[in-house]
């Protein structure tokens, strides 16, 4: 599993590449690959036990588990069409939660595996100010149709085809969350994250605990102060340098011509004097 990330100063983008045979069963998420990104929010939030709060489900709250918050993006593709965008949408965001009724790319927070909720929902009641800030899509390299799929094209390819899964996600560096349910990325700062994959091995449904991960603990995620914005600046700088070099060369050539003309005009002509009587 390969994970890549970049930002443009406003949004952060993630790309997950997973080598694996094509597996897809429409409507059954457990027989399709599923991925999740998890980020530390609270200072005491651990990688193990999804935040590590020791409170049971009936007593975990934002007070009893304060400091153990983790932010999770979870994408199950059983109802998601390849190449189409899922996640935050006007209908679910209007309801004030992190759900996605169309493709199950959801925005979740947790204190431990038993205390996991959609943004805006929880044991203390719901808060209508929340929303799903994530967007994402998926693809598999075995697909031969690149003009786009519709639901009737399911299962989109033949099962067992060799290839690579691609998952792309994005969200703003900062969100309007005021409930400690979203991680906030700071340019020049660092966050802690992990990535998980569930896969139906040999066609068998995966279980919640049977997942693969990039590491057995948090991985440092550094938000470079340059990012893609620096790349853009570098490109702009390169174009400016080329134009400046051409202008400088043209100016030097013009200056040389001007000096030559001025020299020709100003230099003595040394025309020999011929007396009138010799004409």
How is the secondary structure organized here?
Elements: E1 2-7, E2 11-19, E3 34-40, E4 70-76, E5 86-87, H1 90-94, E6 105-112, E7 115-118, E8 135-140, E9 164-172, E10 190-198, E11 212-213, E12 219-222, H2 227-266
Antiparallel strand pairs: 1-2, 2-9, 3-4, 3-10, 4-6, 5-8, 6-7, 8-9, 10-11, 10-12
Domain Cytochrome c-552/DMSO reductase-like haem-binding: 1-213
Keywords: Electron transport, Heme, Iron, Membrane, Metal-binding, Transmembrane, Transmembrane helix, Transport
Transmembrane segments: 242-263
General description of the model:
The protein is α+β, with helices and mostly antiparallel strands and 279 residues long. The chain folds into two domains: 224 residues, Immunoglobulin-like; 40 residues. 16% of the residues lie in helices and 26% in strands. It contains two helices and twelve strands. Strands 3, 4, 6, 7, 10, 11 and 12 form a seven-stranded antiparallel β-sheet that branches. Strands 1-2-9-8-5 form a five-stranded antiparallel β-sheet. A hairpin with a 3-residue loop joins strand 1 and strand 2. The protein is globular and about 50 Å long. About 8% of the residues have low confidence. This is Cytochrome c-552/DMSO reductase-like haem-binding domain-containing protein. Pfam families: EB_dh. GO terms for molecular function: heme binding; metal ion binding.
